[in-house]
Amino acid sequence: MKRGPYPAGPEGESRGDLQDEAFEDEEVRDEKEGSPEYPFGPPPAEEEGTGARLARAVGRGPLHAVIIGISILWMIPALGLLVSSFRERQAITRTGWWRAFTTPTEFTIQNYQDVLTGQGMGTAFINSVIITVPATILTVMVAALAAYAFAWMPLPGRNWWFLLVVALMVVPIQLTLIPVLRLFADLGLTGTYWGIWLAHAAYGLPLGVFLLRNFFVALPKDLLESAFLEGASHTTAFFRIVLPLSVPSLAALGIFQFLWVWNDLLIALVYLGGTRDVAPMTVVISNLVSSFGTEWHLLTAAAFVSVILPLAIFFALQRYFVQGLLAGAVKG
Amino acid sequence: MRNRMQIVAWVYVLPAFILLGAFLVYPVLRTIYWSFFGRHSESFVGLDNYQYLLTQQDVLIVFRNNLLWLVVFTGVTVGLGLILAVLTNLVRYEAIAKAVIFVPMAISFTAAAVIWRFMYIWNPASFKQTGVLNAVITSFGAEPVAWITNTSVNNYALIVAGIWMWTGFSLVVISAGLKGISSEILEAARVDGANEFQIFRHILLPMLKPVLVVVTVTLVINSLKVFDLVYVMTFGNFDTDVIANRMFKEMFQFGQFGRASAIAVILLVAIVPFMLFNIRRFLAAR
Amino acid sequence: MARVFYENVYKRWKETVAVKDFTLEIADKEFLVLVGPSGSGKSTALRLLAGLDSISDGKIYIGDRVINDVAPKDRDIAMVFQTYALYPHMSVHDNVGFGLRLRKMPKDQIHEKVVQAAQVLGIEPLLDRKPGQLSGGQRQRVALARAIVREPEVFLLDEPLSNLDAKLRVQTRAEISKLHQRLGTTFIYVTHDQVEAMTMATQIAVMNFGVIQQVGTPQFLYDHPTNIFVAGFIGSPSMNFFEVTVTGDADQVRLVDDNGLSLPVPAEKRRALESYRDKKIVFGIRPEDIHDPNFVPPETEVAPFDAEVEVTELMGNEVFLHLAHGETKFLARVDPRTVAKQGIKMELMVSMDNMHVFDFESEQRIFTPEEEGKVELDRSVEEEPAEEQVARRQSEVPQDQADQD
Question: Which pairs with CB-CB distance under 8 Å and at least 24 residues apart come from A190-195?
Fold first, then answer.
């Protein structure tokens, strides 16, 4: 039984069964009191598996309490947002959102209507899409080409170039804002979509190239060599062999980049300016906060609109997102 | 033949190099250059910008804030992630718990800022509290706290929002590292006579060191670069300003391009040691 | 007293039973090898003794105490894992001394003991290195040192040689046997390799599907396997099996089949087959008991057998003949001077005094009355002190087994 996208170690699968075993054993063992050494229960000899033994030492009760408690705590902030976005303005200012469940008549979708049309979230949503999708595609394409060259093509000094590209990952974007802004001004790109697409693509390249190149390098050499023997050019190999085989990592990068661009505020603010008709949702929300700081019925609805898509993607494609994250953080 | 392939190779990397050059390499050099110039980058002012920044009281507060972020945000996120990684490893519903804690990473800092501003709402004492935190503390009899504007707590309030967002990352990465430790080693330790806490201290923790380092470095870098959260929650007011925000202000509010560049350079200098560390680690792995 | 006693031990997982009604007594100073194919439950049985898995039913004793609920660290055992399980971040010295450190032994005392153990295993120069810098064989010794430094009552070894290359394996086998002699402690050793079992054990317990098939000395298991599984498992290359029918009358019992096989049963075995007249049984004969007719060893009762040679393998000191008899394929180990060639039909001589017969349905051995007596005999052999057994068997080890891994 696969347990979600989070990597399971070699014992990951069996451990699940062992845990069930441990649960069963628990009832039987309730009568036995703990020794001074193991205040929460019988000594570890009676449990299976690495995990259960540690669980014993920590104490089953406290263990579940802590984990479940923290999980619930984690959900509260977002829950508050969700509930409030469906409440009327008056209700929000008068009572805390947790009271909303006692008076179901308060619920309304008026906020969403206001926010989508009146406050421009609808347009902003579309803008977000317009900004994010091409930026993501562009990033992945450019990164893939470069990564392939670094992996399989005879580029002189390619490992050094690769290193340089990856090193750029750590450069704070702030360092580049002013010159790029001036460059845009000269080229007339400020406030245009092309400007921001190119910018996001550029900023996403270091991580993208890193991720993809590592994946490409791990592909079976024989596969490509036999293709070359049969007369394939690099271009053919790239499009016909490498890309199809790399879908998982391309997806990981794509999703990672998509979310990153979708959620970005700084770059949109700086390169697009605050003009309403091209602003993505992040910018619109931050404007709402600064101008309508206490109009929570609007803010919560707006915020929720902006997170629907990322959440959906996250839940549907968790596996790839986590992969991308791990690759960037753990590898190398 | 080889030469032709080389040319094709250059073609493949050309788009990437152009973009990187235009948006990353060149700008960095320019910014450093302009940091020595005046507000419109016309007149050379030497180190004036730096002097201004390093002596101004409110700028010093900015640095203090980043330091606070660096220590508290990183420390708590790594620690919490570690504890949760070890704990979730032991329960059946591990995947769900991890997903719940990880979800905030999918949303924007902007949305998170809204969420937490909402959590931190302050109503005057005689009114009903609508913010979660104040509701909780008033039920214990305390006075409601203005989390956002009160300068002794607001930085921490912002940091908590950051922790909420990033613990998932810490948890997932450390958890992956944890699962990579073979259970035979733990069994050998048990046979050797170690109890669970000794195993944690002598075996797990040292073996997790590389993973912990990766997570810590990533979080440190992020704590230095933090912008969105602060921008939306407080706009940097009430002494919560951070480097990235200050730079933004210098650029767009004060119109001081020279100073803005200088502050960006300071940020770079702060990050460089970590950049070098990452590169060295990467080289060692190769 | 370090005897170990498993009493009707069961281990159940959710839907399977890994170890079933496991009863085994292991004497002090014994070198017991638990052998069987993958999944036979042998590792599980070992882990139950170590306390790494819990016992579902039954009891395990070390000495006189029941250790079912005792923590691994209090059982006075040491274990060597298949993957050595060395702590990668600690030096060899700290790895070996870890257990002692946990017991709060003073540092200089720890050091002394570590050096001692290191000397026994010849790893003294490696004490400052980390496991990552060692070869497979060296790591193995560190794992062994870590075990002996605790001076336990029982040593548990879980397939310690399976990660070594063939040559190292042969070497290390001998060293582990020497270690056992030197320490005089009970060794319980798990492996899937019957060669290791045969060469090192004073007692072998063969397992399959979680059940003990047979317990006995290596020689006994070789000569008198109690069922087809043990017969086929012990001895390499393994025993050949034929489906035959018992025919004949009071004077002449023969084993026949449809392909022209007709082998006379020696006098001492005839009585055992009386109840099987005209019934099908399984006839087993080891490759080493099938000979080229020109090179039949003396003092063995042979009978002719026709077969076709499919492949010949020259081993240097002998020749393997891959033979076909009808549909059945079998193997013979013959004198290297044989002129047998691929494709020819030839007559072979089978040593009928070493024949084995098994019931067709139950797969159990069909015992002769004398054999029942021999089983009694073997019990007394079990009481022979382990050291002498080891010494006796050192001289009996067949040389060619080393190549047949």
Answer: A190/A271, A190/A272, A190/A273, A191/A271, A191/A272, A191/A273, A191/A275, A191/A278, A193/A130, A193/A131, A193/A134, A193/A278, A195/A271, A195/A272
Provide the pLDDT for residue C389: 52
Residue B243: name the closest of A193, A173, A145, C273 by CA: A173
Asked whether the ipTM of the predicted complex exceeds the cut of 0.95, the reply is no
Give percent of chain C above pLDDT 90: 57
Cα–Cα distance for residue pair A192/A272, rounded to 1 Å? 7
Q: Which residues lie below 8 Å from residue A118, measured CB to CB, with a gap of 6+?
A: none
**Using a CB-CB distance cutoff of 8 angstroms, which residues of chain A are in contact with residue B182?**
10
Task: Give the count of beta carbons closer than 10 Å to the beta carbon of residue B244.
Answer: 26
Q: How far apart are the CA of B261 and the nearest CA of chain C, in angstroms? A: 45
Are C29 and C185 a contacting pair, CB within 8 Å?
yes
Q: Which of A58, A79, A102 is the last residue of a domain?
A: A58
CB contact set of C328 (below 8 Å; sequence gap of 6+): C242, C243, C259
Residue C211 has pLDDT above 90, yes or no: yes
Q: What are phi and psi of A314, to 5 degrees?
A: -60, -50
Partner-chain contact C54 A20, CB within 8 Å: no
Summarize the confidence of residues B129-133 as an average pLDDT.
81
Domain, as residue range, for A277:
115-330
pTM for the full model?
0.76
Please judge whether C69 and A46 are an interchain contact, meaning their C-beta atoms are less than 8 angstroms apart: yes
Q: How far apart are the first and last CA of chain C?
A: 36
Q: How many domains does chain A have?
A: 2
Cis ω on the peptide bond leading into residue A44 (within 30° of 0)? Answer: no
Q: Which C residues in the span 48-87 are in contact with B, Cβ-Cβ below 8 Å?
A: 50-52, 71-73, 77-79, 81-83, 85-87
CA atoms in the 13 A half-sphere facing the CB of A235: 7
| DSSP symbol at C336 | T
Q: Distance, in angstroms, between B87 CA and closest chain C CA? A: 20
**Type and span of the H or E element at C24:** strand C17-26
User: Cβ–Cβ contacts within 10 Å for residue C260, how many?
Assistant: 11
Task: Give C86's strand partners.
Answer: none
A176 with B221: Cβ contact below 8 A: no
Please say if the pLDDT value at position C372 is more than 70: no
DSSP letter at C364?
B
Q: What CATH number has the domain bearing residue B216?
A: 1.10.3720.10
- Decide yes or no: CATH 3.40.50.300 for domain C4-228: yes
For residue C241, is it left (φ>0), alpha (ψ between -120 and 50) or beta? beta
